[in-house]
Design a protein that fits this description.
The chain has 275 residues and is mostly helical. Helix content is 69%, strand content 0%. It has two domains: 1-141, no CATH class; 144-275, no CATH class. Helix 1 (6-34) packs antiparallel against helix 5 (110-129). Keywords: Membrane, Transmembrane, Transmembrane helix.
Length: 275
Amino acid sequence: MTGFPWAAFAVNLAVAAGVAFAVLLTTFAVARAKGVHRLVDIAWGTAFTAVALTTCVLSAGYGDDGRRLLVTVATAVWGLRLSVHIARRGRGHGEDPRYERLLAKAPGSRDAYALRTVYLLQGGLVWLISLPVQVAQYVGVPLGPGAVAGGVVWATGFVFESVGDFQLVRFTANPGNRGRIMDRGLWAWTRHPNYFGDFLVWWGLFLSACGTPQSAAVAVVSPLVMSYLLIHGSGKRLLENHLADRPGYAAYTARTSGFFPLPPRRHPHPEDPRP
């Protein structure tokens, strides 16, 4: 990466790691005091926003200003919307069943186990997954077609995630839908429009970071890790395991794409009550 400010970027990597862990450790202290570890989900988007803003400040005078502004704003808009959405969704609720099951396995102190397996792990993931955001802000190449394509992919993902979340909130707010499977709107085309949107957001940020082949090589680990987590890790797989025994879910999975949006299948499942 000719002309890339490696020394400044190395400092940025260290500071970004400190910021990511500071957000997660602060959240741990608050969650421990309240006795509700679901607060860590709110911190996820906030931590990415903090890393993006920190990197924007540290990269002043190094990278292209247009690219710096693009990735900072895109990351902050995505991260803060996600944090606000999760905070509203969890208001008035107790512990998330996922964390209840996880902490039930704690060999000793539940808080110490949560710190190791949730907060420190997520702090490390924020630092790793935010690599495109960090790299992009030190790339001196002006914005080009790749960054424009990245912006389009990011915007598509942001709309998918936001609309999917909005549709689900509106559906669950209706008492008449209690116990029913959400299969309308974007949820008729994919069982996980919010996760698919997240997938596009991070591939879009990666494309925006690709000012040079070298910067792409450094940043590509981020969308690969995020894709794995969304599809095979704590996203799709974990949620579907939780929903597997719900009435109507088998029929829903039979007619609806598992991740990438596709038209609903016309051949109904034997348990599907719809014609």
